[in-house]
Design brief:
Largest sheet: 5 strands, mixed
EC number: 2.7.1.4
Mean pLDDT: 96
CATH topology of the largest domain: Nucleotidyltransferase, domain 5
Structural class: alpha/beta
Cofactor: Mg(2+)
Order of helices and strands: EEEHEHEHEEEHHHEHHEH
CATH class of the largest domain: Alpha Beta
Radius of gyration: 19 Å
Oligomer: single chain
Shape: globular
Organism: Schleiferilactobacillus harbinensis DSM 16991
Number of helices: 9
Helix content: 25-40%
Protein name: fructokinase
Number of domains: 2
InterPro entries: ATPase_NBD, Carb_Metab_Reg_Kinase/Isom, ROK
Bound molecules: adenosine-5'-diphosphate, zinc ion
Number of strands: 10
Length: 296
């Protein structure tokens, strides 16, 4: 059986599947301190005969496999989790079971690329726009891990003339996350995103900031597709606005695929991360079994 762990700052979602990736059981665990949270994760997974595990974790993470802190959650403000050796504790418990360890957005990117909106694309940028903004990237279908998480959620954006909002990022104030996350919308307009009317100027402004993210992503990574997930992206009216803003600011400087297929909404919704984690677990298990069969 395969397992996936989507380790978020608010909740952990864990799932176990059969070889066809049919989910046998899935649970949610509130994220408390690392010891208690992982005790509950282990109690769940230990009921099954697990062959491999795909893990996507909140960060910042150390993903430099040459680093002494590889697999640690590093400078998070979340109490108890600073400099926590997450991968080390998982490896200590699961011993010889292969573990693929990456960011929460990367596992969602894998789910979307293999079974969701990114099918057929090789180089995939996946943004989540929710409580925070994060980006994952797949290079020719494989996880791209830098030394740490990609932090494109904190790129600087050009402030719209009509926007006087200071921004909510505690580090940069008016970076992308500071201006366009769910909490930024709520703080700017005094309404939860879900309650902002469809025809509000708020969506044009939001689309402008997300279009700037698409422009920087296009110019620096030239992906095949840019997929948006997360709570704010559930507003389908955003997508035509992002595409038209993007086209306006890019000014025809580079060519892109047809924008209707280039800037798209995630197809797997909240399941993308778990599906991606299970796919990564399957890859790892198949790799182990084929190398065991290979002649010396
Ligand atoms: P998280 O990022 O915490 O994993 P979500 O991706 O669900 O969770 O994002 C939550 C944020 O998205 C909240 O700020 C919420 O107000 C906002 N949000 C959720 N649904 C909508 C919606 N339909 N329209 C606009 N904003 C929404
Ligand atoms: Zn920031």
């Amino acid at each position: 059986m395969y397992a996936a762990i989507e380790a978020g700052g608010t909740k952990f979602v864990c799932a176990v599947s059969d070889h066809q990736l049919n989910i046998v059981e899935k649970i949610r665990i509130a994220t408390t301190d690392p010891q208690q949270t992982l005790r509950r994760v282990f109690a769940f997974l230990d009921q099954y005969d697990i062959e491999a595990i795909g893990v996507g974790a909140f960060g910042p993470l150390d993903l430099d496999n040459q680093s002494s802190h590889y697999g640690y959650i590093t400078t998070t403000p979340k109490a108890g989790w600073q400099e926590f050796n997450f991968l080390g504790v998982l490896k200590g418990h699961f011993e010889d079971i292969p573990i693929i360890f990456t960011t929460d957005v990367n596992i969602a990117a894998v789910g979307e690329q293999r079974l969701g909106a990114g099918r057929g694309a090789q180089n995939v940028a996946y943004y989540t726009v929710g409580t925070g903004i994060g980006m994952g990237f797949l290079y020719h279908g494989a996880l791209y891990d830098g030394r740490g998480n990609l932090e494109a959620g904190h790129i600087l954006v050009r402030r719209s003339n009509e926007d006087k909002f200071a921004g909510v990022c505690p580090y940069h104030r008016d970076c992308l996350e500071g201006m366009a996350s769910g909490p930024a919308m709520e703080s700017r307009w005094g309404l939860k995103g879900a309650n902002i009317p469809t025809d509000s100027f708020a969506w044009r402004l939001e689309a402008n900031y997300l279009a700037q993210a698409c422009m920087i992503t296009t110019l620096s990574l030239s992906p095949d597709i840019i997929i948006f997930g997360g709570g704010v992206s559930n507003r389908s009216e955003l997508f035509p606005l992002i595409r038209s803003e993007f086209s306006k600011i890019l000014g025809g400087y580079v060519t892109t695929p047809n924008l209707a297929h280039y800037i798209v909404h995630a197809a797997l919704g909240n399941d993308a991360g778990i599906v991606g984690g299970l796919l990564l677990a399957k890859d790892a298990a198949v790799k182990v079994s084929t190398s065991a069969l290979a002649p010396d």
